[in-house]
Design brief:
By secondary structure, this protein is α+β, with helices and mostly antiparallel strands. It folds into 2 domains: 290 residues, Zn peptidases (Aminopeptidase); 114 residues, 2-Layer Sandwich (Alpha-Beta Plaits), CATH 3.30.70.360. The chain is built from 12 helices and 17 strands. Strands 2, 3, 4, 6, 7, 8, 15, 16 and 17 form a 9-stranded mixed β-sheet that branches. The longest helix is centred in the last third of the chain and has 22 residues. It is elongated. Helix 3 packs across helix 12 and helix 10 packs across helix 12. It binds zinc ion.
Length: 415
């Protein structure tokens, strides 16, 4: 059934280019940070596209934006799709945007085909999937899921000590934060179209990735406090070197992930700061971050527990104090069979090759999984590159993703 949908890939690519122009970095780089002038201008432009598609647009107190195409049964929960349009500094133009502009094109194609559907379709533009401004990813969807509470939002600060509260109110998002949370079962299903941000589809020559699960991080912050001193004067047997203890812990992090026995378990020390950082001074304090990810929450938490146990052991053995605090533990998500089956069927009917895969990066879908069954449609991106100005997916690849999205929406909205 190739060519079932009349997708205008050139028009979609030119929209992606227009959206990339709302940027604080010169082309081809894109920088679009939450609640900045460029973010607001991009939102205004997209809301006009929603309007001209005949969709009803609403916004919540954080600026999450919903465009709704009514179905025949106003009682039936809608089918939702969407993604984000914020972009980390000096990144590319496809991450997130393909899932928003692609959804608009999918809805246009469904309308052009004259289809009447039982359920409404909603396109969601999520506020700030990237953690750039407030240090927390998926701000909008996390709040929708209830995992991020209004009080937690009120406590968030940006680099200039500005609050979310001030920034959102200045942007005109004035409703109560308590109203952002969505009901469980609010949607029949949620599907996000996204570039893969990894090389697997390209290297296997596959057009569509059908995501089975989304890995989620636990982030630990570790402070090792030892004893400083003169690098010449303190003998080795008298030392409580914070750096060497921290280095041993970093090795324990690697070992803890390997011990899980599953290739989906990964753990990384991404930051390692040394104090006082002088050639002739024994480090008295180091701080490090540990990022542990898995698609299995229990196994991820077990890995984090092994890291905490190693910290206790290393601290006792080396006579240093090691404090481990948990910054966040997000629940991994398993995609819903009802959505995955619809994606697989859609790809098969359209003649697009399709493979199951795991998303190792997280997405708004991770938090939508708290509300309804979810799925993700991945399309290839060149050499797996993302978060860089040379991020690229071809018109043909994006078109295939939009076709599968359109078919999936129709299947789910007809249920
Ligand atoms: Zn993204």
């Amino acid at each position: 059934m190739k060519g079932k949908w009349n997708i205008d890939a050139d028009h979609l690519m030119s929209r992606i280019e227009t959206l990339a122009g709302f940027s604080d970095a010169p082309k081809p780089a894109v920088t679009r940070v939450l609640y900045t002038e460029q973010d607001l201008a991009a939102r205004t432009w997209i809301k006009a596209l929603f309007d001209s598609s005949g969709m009803t647009v609403t916004e919540d107190a954080l600026g999450n934006t919903f465009a709704r195409l009514e179905g025949d049964d106003p009682e039936a929960p809608a089918v939702a799709t969407g993604s984000h349009i914020d972009a980390i500094p000096h990144s590319g133009r496809y991450d997130g945007t393909v899932g928003v502009l692609g959804a608009i094109e999918a809805v246009r194609a469904i309308q052009a085909a004259g289809l009447r559907l039982r359920r409404a379709i909603e396109i969601v533009l999520f506020t700030a999937e990237e953690p750039t401004r407030y240090g927390i990813g998926c701000l909008g969807s996390r709040a929708m899921s209830g995992i991020l509470t209004p009080d937690m939002i009120r406590a968030l600060r940006d680099e200039d000590d500005g609050t979310v509260e001030d920034a959102r109110l200045r942007c005109g998002f004035t409703g109560p934060l308590e109203s952002v949370r969505l009901e469980r079962g609010q949607y029949h299903g949620f599907i996000e179209l996204h570039i893969e941000q990894g090389p697997r589809l390209e290297t296997t020559g596959t057009m569509i990735g059908n995501v089975t699960a989304i890995a989620a991080p636990a982030t630990l912050h570790v402070t090792v406090s030892g004893e400083g001193g003169h690098a010449g004067a303190v003998l080795m047997r008298e030392r409580h070197d914070a750096l060497v203890a921290g280095a041993e812990l970093a090795q324990a992090v690697e070992a803890a992930a390997r011990q899980s026995g599953a290739s989906d378990t990964v753990a990384t020390v991404g930051i390692f700061d040394i104090h006082p950082r002088a050639v002739n001074s024994i480090p008295d304090r180091v701080s490090l971050t540990v990022d542990v990810r898995d698609i299995d929450g229990q196994r991820r938490d077990d890995t984090a527990d092994r890291i905490r146990a190693a910290a206790t052991d290393i601290g006792a053995r080396r006579g240093v104090s090691i404090e481990v605090s948990t910054l966040n533990t997000d629940p991994p998500a398993t995609c819903g069979p009802v959505v995955r089956d619809a994606i697989a069927q859609a790809a098969a009917e359209l003649g697009h090759s399709c493979t199951d895969l795991v998303s190792r990066a997280y997405h708004d879908t991770l938090f939508m999984a708290e509300i309804c069954p979810v799925g993700m449609i991945f399309v290839p991106c060149r050499r797996g590159v993302s978060h860089r100005p040379d991020e690229y997916s071809s018109p043909g690849q994006i078109k295939a993703g939009v076709e599968v999205l359109a078919s999936t929406l129709v299947k789910l909205a007809s249920q």
